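Why predict the complex rather than its parts? Because the way molecules touch one another can change local conformation, and only a joint prediction can capture that. The input here totals 612 residues.
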Amino acid sequence: MNSMKIVGTGKYIPDKKIDNDNLEKIYNLDKGYIKKVTGIETRYYVENETLDTIAINSVKDLIEKNSKIEIQKVGIIIATSTTINNVMPSLSFQIQKYFDIKNCMCLDVLAGCSAFINALDIAQKYLTYSDIDYALVIGAEVLSINNYINDKDKILFGDGAGCVLLENTGQEKEYFSLIESISQNNDILTCDKNNNLYMDGKGVYKFATTKTVENINKLIEKADENKENIKYIIPHQSNLKILEKISQKLDIKMYTNIRKYGNTFCASIPIALDELVTMNEIKEKDKIILLGYGGGLNLGSILMEV
Amino acid sequence: MNSMKIVGTGKYIPDKKIDNDNLEKIYNLDKGYIKKVTGIETRYYVENETLDTIAINSVKDLIEKNSKIEIQKVGIIIATSTTINNVMPSLSFQIQKYFDIKNCMCLDVLAGCSAFINALDIAQKYLTYSDIDYALVIGAEVLSINNYINDKDKILFGDGAGCVLLENTGQEKEYFSLIESISQNNDILTCDKNNNLYMDGKGVYKFATTKTVENINKLIEKADENKENIKYIIPHQSNLKILEKISQKLDIKMYTNIRKYGNTFCASIPIALDELVTMNEIKEKDKIILLGYGGGLNLGSILMEV
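Output of the joint prediction:
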């Protein structure tokens, strides 16, 4: 059973554009190396902004794009980020406060880079099985600040925020999710609370190009759906080579924007979703698959009718 | 609709007992001051232990107490803590890894000191409305280490962990929840990711003795239940004066153990629940109310048939 529908999306990308030339000079890399290895051409860094402000800006964008939205009707706010600055009040509470939303439940979900999938799945449960009418789900990251990411890894990451507003329409829509945590080998991708990030590139590549494909194949089987009916896979944007490999193995069209924004962790799926919705590339009744994977290790996909 | 049932509980309290005499000397307080103001007589601090190990120890206690439990059947692990050490893999994933649980979804929830209520409510949704059969929900805190809590506030806090295992029985049981976030005034209780804690005692007292009572009265009305049928309120253990005030206003029996453990934030409700279950003070078919409140500000209660 599912009666959740996407009402609107929003995103916020900071102004400060960082291109590869600059980073290749700083980190003493050959010209063209970054694009060749990661597919990334630019990424954006915050300046005088915080996790809270960029998340709030993405919600402002959602409201601006969707003039009929009554943000006061939101009954649950779920935020996701790996670059949290406060444990309490956590990000979701700061969003509630900024927009002065009453009668609302707030929580943040930690589940690695793919926490947005968990958050959306929780929102679906509350919308379909409680008296809540609207849910706001946010992914935001400020990876460029307040962190000790290895220099070599800095070329991969960007800052940004994205959000989606969902409604309980009371009408049945296709929805299936498959979230699997695989912690046995989880030291290949870790991040402590000071944002000391460690990544075993080869290990992550292997995980991300095999387990994701198995997960989506199981999801499609669970949904008794045909690949041909899926308009887009909207994946976590980790690395263009990983994404091309997944898309090739599954033979389903995939949307990528990593060349513009880099890897924005929890923000990557809602930013991509917002771009497709804004370009009118996905419309009501289209079927899409959202795919998350990353630290935890965590892995999850959602097949949903828009 | 609800088909969730408590199967077992567990807790872990570290060995290092800290009594008031010691703290009153350190912080230059009159003898008897701490007990008079807070109701706390002792609290326990970790030694050479981490958030992960004390949470794992609480699950070991659950397994030891309930010989029939097959922990491998757990399909969702939800952990809560304000004293997180890793953003990814977060606590729930470390628990999955330790017990080598396959086919399981892991996530951590941040929602202040009352996140355990949110986590239990999410578990209820997954057990009742998905194919997951068992859920493990944990609250754990290591407030004595890795923090910069004001000396004056140190007298209040203790370390510990508690957990509950829940089953989807397929049989209807009474369950109602009411979770409300009230962020407008949320600077009265804050904690950044380095555990710099700030608390406005008077503001928290006012919030905790008024909004909680309103929340529980609304919950009882929503459930169309009689106060007389509630065997215990099992509250977050923040301060004995707050708890006595809430109990007096509501005229419902309340379980307190703050004199032994101090305020253990996210761990306080599952520790109290474990004590009552272990003492056989709550049994199958009893009706209880769990009450959480704290930073966010967040507030939530659950009325459930055991």
